[in-house]
Structure formats: structure tokens, C-alpha cells
């Protein structure tokens, strides 16, 4: 269960389909171990001003969803903030609700045995969310799993780094943009069999009563800013591993191309799921292959140190 939860929390908010080819002349860039930080400066390759890359966790206990002085400085000194989708576009965010539902009027009961369906229904009857189960059972199962992941966090209030960043960015008058649309990110789940998604949801519910430190581990790893460990946690899931090109790598390649185009004219902060940053096909290395210099920047939410970001 830790593995599918890691996927949901670190990289499942928005997913892309379109792949771009890497620049062959830069293919020799070595994928070295990454420094333990979520914040990276993008410079070189003719840029007049640096841009930045930040790895998020989509659902966190509110006490952990905090800005550092360095991240605040980055927001103040860049012109735009890009998330996976444009979170400030209410029309798009509200319109995304129609993409959450399964195609063909399917319901969870169509995908599971009677016993497994009862197990899921009983869980949400005993642990109700803000969305009634009668509506939820028409959702793509991975979206239901994301609600389950949030419920399991042992804290009274939850938040996401994206929301915290956006609130501060809007306060500073920054424009909010998205690397892809809500329709695009929702449609990717149609490429994963609904039956596979439903079976993973049942596994998550089966594991709830098993004494485990899984979710604590996820939050601890995010606090440690160990991108390599985050990558390992996501890649251990066999079912997800079979679809990594579709779910992660193709999307990273697409983003790297878009980021290259955007930062040539405008310094920006790009805040995306932390699992998208590390690895040979992670956004950090893909930008290096394009000729950019990626420099780790200290991100310490409890330590005041803006000087690091100014370097």
C-alpha cells in the first residue's frame, strides 16, 4: 500500500501523454546522485535570469506544508508560478469534475466482486468523506484512492504545497499558470484499466488495519527532501512500474520541452510533484541534457536563510 500511496501523493495530481525526443548531442550527461533538497535553480544556457524547480507533495499535514525563506524569495523574484495544472482557473478546476467520472457510466460495483465492493462501501460508510459514496463510486478508482490517502493522515488539518505556494504567489501579484490542462491530467487514468485501479483501491483498504508506518514514512521522506528515496518508493509498485512511461517519463519529457520554451523569456517557478524531479528521465536531468545548470538550493521551512537562494 505504501507504494501506490507514494505514487498518488508524489506524482498523481496531473499526468501527461505526449512524449518528446531528447536532444542527442546532450545525451552524455551523467545522472549523478542528487542533493537532498526540493528546490533547484535553473540557470545557464543563455538565460538572463534564473528560474526554479520545486518538488511538491500533493497532500500534507498542514504543519508540514510551509514555505521556507528561500522559496518565498524565489516566488518574489520570478514573474510566474507554474503548477501541473492552472489551480487559479476556477472554470477549469470545476470543469475537471466531469473528467473524474469513469467513462460509459461505469460504477465501482461493475469492477469488483460483491465482497470487495461491500468492503469499499463499508469503509466509506464508517469513514465518510465530504463526497457521498453514491457519487464517489462513479469516480475513476485512483481518485477514490487519493481521498483515502488524505483520510489516513493522522492530523486534524491537511493542506498541499501547491495551495500554500499559490496563496503566497497571489499575495505577491504573481500570475498562476499550468503545464497541462485538467482534462489532460484526468484523461490519463482512462489509459489505465479501471479494473486495475479498483483492485489497487481494495488493496489499500485491506492494508488499513495492518499496523504500519507507511504514511509516516512518506511524510518523513518528504521532510528529508531525499528525492532519490522518493523515486525508489514510487518505482517499487509493480502495477505502476508497468506504466511508468505513460504515467511519469513521457510527461517529464513533455514538461522539459515546455519549460525550455517558457524560461527563455520569463523567469518562473515550476512546482510539480516531487517524484517528477529525480532519475535519468526526471525533469532535473532532462533540463541538464538541454544545456541548463541545475543547482540545489537549501529549502528549510523552519530555518530562516534567504541568502542561499540569492546565490
Automatic annotation (TrEMBL):
Organism: Pinibacter aurantiacus
UniProt keywords, alphabetically: Signal
Transmembrane regions: none
N-terminal signal peptide: 1-19
Protein name, as recorded: TraB/GumN family protein
Amino acid at each position: 500500500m505504501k507504494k501506490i500511496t507514494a505514487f498518488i501523493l508524489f506524482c498523481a495530481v496531473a499526468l501527461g501523454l505526449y512524449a518528446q525526443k531528447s536532444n542527442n548531442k546532450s545525451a552524455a550527461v551523467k545522472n549523478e546522485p542528487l542533493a537532498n533538497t526540493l528546490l533547484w535553480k535553473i540557470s545557464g544556457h543563455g538565460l538572463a535570469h534564473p528560474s526554479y524547480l520545486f518538488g511538491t507533495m500533493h497532500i500534507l499535514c498542514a504543519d508540514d506544508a510551509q514555505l521556507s525563506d528561500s522559496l518565498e524569495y524565489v516566488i518574489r523574484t520570478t514573474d510566474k508560478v507554474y503548477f501541473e495544472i492552472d489551480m487559479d482557473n476556477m472554470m477549469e478546476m470545476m470543469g475537471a469534475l466531469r473528467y473524474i467520472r469513469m467513462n460509459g457510466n461505469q460504477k465501482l460495483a461493475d469492477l469488483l466482486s460483491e465482497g470487495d465492493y461491500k468492503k469499499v462501501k463499508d469503509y466509506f460508510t464508517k469513514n465518510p468523506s465530504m463526497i457521498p459514496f453514491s457519487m464517489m463510486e462513479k469516480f475513476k478508482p485512483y481518485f477514490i484512492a487519493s481521498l483515502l490517502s488524505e483520510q489516513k493522515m493522522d492530523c486534524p488539518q491537511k493542506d498541499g504545497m501547491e495551495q500554500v505556494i499559490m496563496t503566497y504567489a497571489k499575495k505577491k501579484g504573481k500570475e498562476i499558470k499550468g503545464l497541462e490542462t485538467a482534462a489532460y491530467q484526468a484523461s490519463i487514468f482512462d489509459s489505465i484499466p479501471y479494473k486495475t485501479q479498483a483492485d489497487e483501491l481494495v488493496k489499500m483498504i485491506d492494508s488499513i488495519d495492518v499496523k504500519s508506518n507507511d504514511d509516516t514514512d512518506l511524510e518523513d521522506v518528504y521532510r528529508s527532501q531525499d528525492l532519490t528515496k522518493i523515486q525508489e518508493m514510487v518505482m517499487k509498485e509493480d502495477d505502476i512500474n508497468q506504466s511508468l512511461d505513460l504515467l511519469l517519463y513521457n510527461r517529464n519529457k513533455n514538461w522539459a520541452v515546455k519549460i525550455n520554451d517558457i524560461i527563455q523569456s520569463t523567469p518562473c517557478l515550476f512546482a510539480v510533484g516531487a517524484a517528477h524531479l529525480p532519475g535519468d528521465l526526471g525533469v532535473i536531468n532532462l533540463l541538464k541534457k538541454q544545456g541548463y545548470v541545475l543547482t540545489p538550493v537549501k529549502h528549510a521551512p523552519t530555518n530562516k536563510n534567504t541568502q542561499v537562494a540569492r546565490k
